[in-house]
Specification:
With 110 residues, this protein is an alpha+beta fold. 41% of the residues lie in helices and 31% in strands. It has helices spanning 2-30, 37-48, 102-105, and strands spanning 33-36, 51-58, 61-67, 74-80, 86-93.
């Protein structure tokens, strides 16, 4: 009886411990990588061939989209409104393609 109770406790602690490690790793992975914006420009250009393509103002700061003309990879970066000299990488992707509505392609007013 005592031996089976010890096994149950052991496996319970082991499973809970593994779940805690997995969740902690997942949260750490979800944290954006931040650095000075000038350094982000250099890293994106030198390491990935990406250049700033577009930007826009959002409630959290300024979003910047970096795109590689060579392989169409892209990165979404936020310059937080608290300190726009910093830049935080929010995500990366592939096969970037701008969407241009037909009325803009044809020069019609919005």
């Amino acid at each position: 009886m005592m031996n089976s109770l010890v096994k149950v406790i052991f496996w319970t602690v082991l499973i809970v411990g593994l779940l805690a490690v997995m969740l902690t790793a997942r949260e750490a992975k979800a944290q954006p990588k931040c650095m000075p914006f000038e350094q982000m420009l250099e890293v994106e250009r030198e390491s990935f061939g990406r250049i700033p393509f577009a930007s826009g103002i959002a409630s959290g700061g300024i979003f910047v989209i970096f795109v590689s003309p060579a392989d169409r990879s892209y990165a979404l970066v936020l310059r937080p409104k608290q300190d726009t000299s910093q830049a935080c990488l929010l995500g990366i992707g592939a096969d970037f393609s701008p969407i241009i509505p037909k009325h803009l392609e044809q020069g019609e007013p919005t």
